[in-house]
From TrEMBL, chain A:
Pfam families: Glycos_transf_2. It comes from Actinoplanes italicus. GO terms for molecular function: transferase activity. This is Glycosyl transferase family 2. It comes from the Bacteria. The keyword Transferase applies. InterPro entries: Glyco_trans_2-like, Glycosyltransferase_2, Nucleotide-diphossugar_trans.
Automatic annotation (TrEMBL), chain B:
The chain crosses the membrane at residues 6-22, 34-52, 58-79. This is DUF2304 domain-containing protein. Pfam families: DUF2304 (PF10066). It comes from Actinoplanes italicus. It comes from the Bacteria. Keywords: Membrane, Transmembrane, Transmembrane helix.
Length: 234, 121
């Protein structure tokens, strides 16, 4: 990646992340100075948009809340309209370490979509209970569909290139879990190659994770439904 | 006989309400036409609830009203499915519009900024 002059856009969907977004943007600028940063503000009630703009990112502000999938689709649409060669989607809460972006871009040489995956050897991320079953279920099913081992199918840390950016700008699923599960099925079906590289994720710098047992159970059921729908969809 | 009075009144009110909504342009023609046809079809039954009895005895259904109730449940189910479909489609359309607005606003802001930069020095 270092020698080429491909244009790269990082897409950060953000919702009420004013506290953490500056640090995330600054870190990307420090690690990847040649990269453009796009923050898609999903109609936050705090000052996310202004803070991100002040930190030097491009900002798109949605007029009402579309959910993380909708914000990502807008990011891809922006990337497609501005003819970026590579798009990397990251979370705005600081979980994703921009130092892995170079590895992911290198891996794009042999794949169309590269997923930055926990559980693939790096880092110490652990979950248990229904949430773990859900992740296991998704990982086994989607690995079979994708034809390659995927250990972290719900990871929001992904890089893709060229044609696939164009494809996502029109087809990125906007429903809950669709942005993670449906994308893999849809991407594979459309004939694109998927691969993953191991990354370690950090604790969030802002926001609260959702982890109660009831919520995890709902999560398991919804992932099952998302998977089922993804499989029968045209 | 009092039952007929109730059903007839209901049928008439339904036709009047739909016609009035159409007249005030509150209903799109495609829905208005559908409901008007339904209302007009139901009206004779409202006046003569036993109208279907001859027909249903051929089909082996005990009373005309059971057939009527069954068909109306099926019809309402189809209508609500159609409305879910319609609202999904509308949601997708407004989603596209909001994307468009976000992109345009960003572009306008960029233009303003570059113009100010030209005018400033």
């Amino acid at each position: 990646m270092t020698a080429t002059n491909e244009r790269l856009l990082t897409i950060l969907p953000a919702w009420n992340e004013a506290e953490s977004i500056t640090a995330v943007i600054k870190e990307i600028q420090r690690e990847l100075p040649e990269v453009d940063i796009l923050v898609v503000d999903d109609c936050s009630r705090d000052t996310t948009a202004a803070v991100a703009r002040a930190a030097g990112a491009k900002v798109l502000r949605l007029p009402y809340n579309l959910g993380v999938g909708g914000a990502r689709r807008l990011g891809y649409r922006y990337a497609a309209e501005h003819h970026y060669d590579i798009a990397v989607q990251m979370d705005a809460d600081g979980q994703h370490d921009p130092r892995y972006v170079r590895d992911m871009v290198d891996a794009l040489a042999t794949a169309d979509l590269v997923i930055g995956a926990r559980f693939a050897g790096e880092g110490a991320y652990r979950v248990s209970g229904p949430r773990q079953w859900a992740m296991k279920l998704l990982s086994v099913a989607l690995s079979a569909i994708a034809g390659t081992r995927l250990t972290d199918t719900t990871s929001g840390f992904r890089a893709c290139r060229g044609e696939l950016i164009e494809f996502y700008s029109r087809n990125f699923p906007v429903e809950y879990l669709g942005d993670t599960v449906d994308t893999i099925v849809q991407t594979r079906r459309s004939g694109y190659l998927i691969s993953q590289i191991p990354v370690s994720m950090r604790p969030r710098q802002g926001g609260t994770p959702s982890a109660s047992p009831a919520k995890s159970m709902v999560y398991l059921l919804r992932s099952g439904l998302a998977l089922l729908l993804a499989l029968v969809r045209r | 006989m009092r039952l007929v009075f109730v059903t007839a009144a209901t049928g008439v009110v339904m036709v009047v309400v739909i016609f009035e909504l159409l007249r005030r342009r509150q209903l799109r023609e495609k829905y208005g036409a559908l409901w008007l046809v339904v209302a007009l079809a139901v009206l004779p039954l409202a006046f003569f609830p036993t109208l279907l009895d001859g027909f249903t005895s051929v089909l082996g259904i005990a009373s005309g009203l059971s057939l009527f109730l069954f068909l109306s449940v099926v019809f309402l189910l189809l209508v609500s499915v159609h409305l879910s479909w319609e609202s999904s489609r509308l949601e997708e359309e407004t989603r596209c519009l909001s994307e468009e607005i976000a992109l345009l606003r960003a572009e306008v802001a960029e233009f303003k900024e570059s113009r100010e930069r030209v005018n400033a020095p």
